[in-house]
């Protein structure tokens, strides 16, 4: 076992990472920066790729998905790929394209529910926004990241005096009740801001708008002025420069190390930024010695967006992106190099797992009660909601033994629904042998989740060990 100091240090570095990532765009940007600082070069999808042994590369799509890889010194087209896959998105509230709402003297922000969040946990939290803004400049259109560091939004609960059954049956209407407050109309007026509800132009007006008119003429009609002002102040731009933005609502309370013995991580977005971070760190650390010189494989991490809504997007795991990247890396060999590479390859689908809940232990299968600190979880489902098979679990066990990382097993109760991951999607689409794993946690899909500090270190060590040892383990197989 690693020392408490080593485990805690790894957890603290992860906490620093997650506090900078209120959106998938920020997560990918942080991963990108870590890769660049460790010698990875960026490729563009539209460019011609020239791949060389011992070199390290990455490619992004939509600024929310990133695939990074290191080419083994003995790699030839037709050799295998060692892949760890994860996702960059989490359940959240997203600002609507037209978010301007005024109700009962409050200026509010219209939001859309993204994924399967536990929405009541978003009430009475100090909220902010983060995401990307498309800005018109003198040289063209830029995409800029924004993260407002102070609380500007709140979804207030209804007082129990006005809803006596609040504790027994609180089920908020996602359209009418889950709407954050931004400001009051009276304060906006007193401080000289735009009126909450500017008059609409008359339908009979003869004045017509030029089709070449800039977008900012309608920005005030789409979003309440305080929100626009805050975004402009953050980026030091004028409202007329904003073409559009894509904003995620996020909690301002930072991720922290907690518990009486400093053994927990209390944080948003553990599902699944813990595995996205650990996959990146595992790849970087695995490339930090001479082992890459002798590797016949390409070591790869694939961090996809939109897993929480089914992965069916241009930047999701159901897209052709993964297959296209593997095809490009197999080029230069025989006509069947890609097909030859697939059975030699292996993928770890890394997504968070359910630890046994002390207050709801009856919700967990009695022989598969996953615990914090006791290892990375192997997820198995006979109905193929997870991609693990007897072969892929056996391979993982050997890798875990070599990496000195303990494993646990999880299956869902027969009378409970089972979630899924990118594992079945990619294994079915590509035919790559895949195993589903994850770090144990509580409060999954809450605005504040809970995991243990041990998981960051264990996940990083497992993924690093996979990159280092998979070719040797594969060569030992006699079936």
TrEMBL record:
Enzyme category, top tier: hydrolase
Pfam families, sorted: Peptidase_M18
GO CC annotations on file: cytoplasm
Cofactor: Zn(2+)
Keyword Zinc in annotation: yes
Segment forming the signal sequence: none
Subunit structure: Tetrahedron-shaped homododecamer built from six homodimers.
Protein name: Aspartyl aminopeptidase
């Amino acid at each position: 076992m690693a020392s408490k100091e080593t485990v805690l240090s790894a957890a603290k570095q992860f906490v620093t990472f997650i506090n900078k990532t209120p959106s998938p765009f920020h997560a990918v940007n942080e991963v990108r920066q870590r890769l660049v600082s460790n010698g990875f070069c960026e490729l563009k999808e539209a460019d011609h790729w020239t791949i060389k042994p011992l070199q390290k590369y990455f490619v992004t799509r939509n600024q929310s998905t990133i695939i990074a890889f290191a080419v083994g010194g003995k790699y030839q087209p037709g050799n295998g790929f060692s892949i760890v896959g994860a996702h960059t998105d989490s359940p959240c509230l997203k600002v609507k394209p037209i978010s301007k709402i005024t109700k009962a003297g409050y200026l509010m922000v219209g939001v859309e529910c993204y994924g399967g969040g536990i929405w009541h946990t978003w009430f009475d939290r100090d909220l902010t926004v983060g995401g990307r803004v498309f800005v018109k400049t003198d040289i063209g259109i830029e995409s800029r990241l924004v993260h407002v560091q102070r609380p500007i939004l709140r979804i207030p609960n209804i007082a129990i005096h006005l809803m006596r059954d609040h504790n027994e049956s609180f089920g908020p209407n996602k359209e009418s009740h889950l709407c954050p407050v931004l400001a009051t109309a009276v304060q906006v007026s007193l401080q000289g801001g735009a009126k909450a509800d500017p008059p609409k132009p008359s339908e009979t007006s003869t004045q017509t708008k030029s089709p070449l008119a800039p977008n900012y003429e309608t920005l005030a009609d789409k979003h309440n002025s305080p929100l626009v002002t805050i975004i402009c102040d953050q980026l030091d731009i004028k409202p007329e420069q904003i073409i559009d933005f894509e904003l995620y609502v996020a909690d301002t309370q930072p991720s922290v190390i907690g518990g009486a013995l400093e053994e927990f991580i209390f944080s948003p977005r553990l599902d699944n930024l813990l595995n996205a971070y650990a996959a990146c760190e595992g790849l970087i650390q695995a490339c930090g010695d001479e082992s890459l010189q002798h590797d016949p494989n390409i070591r790869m991490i694939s961090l996809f967006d939109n897993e929480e809504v089914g992965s069916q997007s241009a930047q999701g795991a159901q897209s052709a992106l993964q297959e296209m990247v593997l095809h490009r890396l197999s080029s230069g060999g025989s006509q069947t190099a890609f097909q030859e590479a697939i059975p030699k390859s292996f993928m770890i689908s890394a997504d968070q797992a359910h630890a046994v809940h002390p207050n709801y232990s009856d919700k967990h299968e009695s022989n598969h009660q996953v615990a914090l600190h006791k290892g990375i979880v192997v997820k198995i489902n006979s109905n193929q909601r997870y991609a693990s098979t007897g072969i892929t679990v056996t391979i993982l066990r050997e890798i875990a033994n070599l990496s000195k990382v303990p494993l646990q097993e999880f299956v869902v109760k027969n009378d409970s629904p089972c979630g899924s991951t990118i594992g079945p999607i990619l294994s079915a689409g590509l035919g790559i042998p895949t195993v589903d794993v994850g770090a144990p946690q509580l409060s999954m899909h809450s605005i504040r989740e809970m995991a243990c500090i041990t998981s960051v270190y264990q996940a990083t060590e497992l993924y690093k060990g996979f990159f280092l040892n998979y070719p040797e383990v594969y060569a030992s197989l006699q079936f």
